[in-house]
Design brief:
single chain, about 180 residues, five-stranded mixed β-sheet, 6 helices, about 35% helix, globular
């Protein structure tokens, strides 16, 4: 019996981390909604330094949750954010990735994949839970993203995103939001 449970968990993790498989854990109504104040947090980064959401007040923040370092879908999503980093810089935006992996795993992932933006270690699962972004009975972070405005409000919510096209979608929405927001 125990073996069957572990096999199911492993299959679920592999599926959630694969190409385009969507990990939904919470109903849309339970997710932090656009217009709400983004829950603040402090988590260690791959640089083993604490990072707080409040550190980025005055900037747009792309807070993306992902299941697992060094898996196919998560690598594609991270590569695309890295590829577009210059565009995010020009838009006064930062990328913050969050998973339940450790700082050490994040360091390995960044080194292996050439990532230069911050990956945050939510090993206590508090931030993933605060944003209702957990999957597989809380074992991994769900593939959700929150676009946070410079005043700390949730501007856009993306649930169960497609890793291959997500960065393009966020950049498009960011440009639209910036063109309609007061200066």
């Amino acid at each position: 019996m125990r073996k069957a449970v572990w096999i199911a968990v492993i299959i679920g993790v592999v599926s959630a981390c694969g190409y385009g498989i969507k990990a939904h854990a919470a109903a849309a109504a339970d997710i932090v909604q656009a217009g709400a104040t983004a829950p603040n947090f402090t988590l260690p980064s791959q640089e083993d330094k604490p990072v707080s959401l409040s550190d980025y007040k005055g900037k747009w923040v792309v807070l993306y949750f992902y299941p697992k370092d060094m898996t196919p879908g998560c690598s594609i999503e991270a590569h695309n954010f890295q590829r577009d980093l210059g565009k995010y810089d020009k838009a006064n935006a930062v990328i913050l990735g969050v998973s339940m992996d450790s700082e050490k795993k994040h360091q390995e992932f960044c080194t292996k994949e050439g990532l230069t933006f911050k990956l945050l270690a939510d090993t206590g699962k508090k931030v993933s839970k605060a944003y209702n972004s957990t999957a597989l009975m809380g074992l991994i972070s769900a593939r959700n993203t929150f676009l946070i405005s410079p005043d700390g409000k949730i501007a856009k919510v993306y649930l169960g995103v497609s890793p291959s096209s997500h960065s393009d979608q966020v950049l498009s929405d960011l440009a639209q939001l910036q063109s309609t927001s007061p200066k």
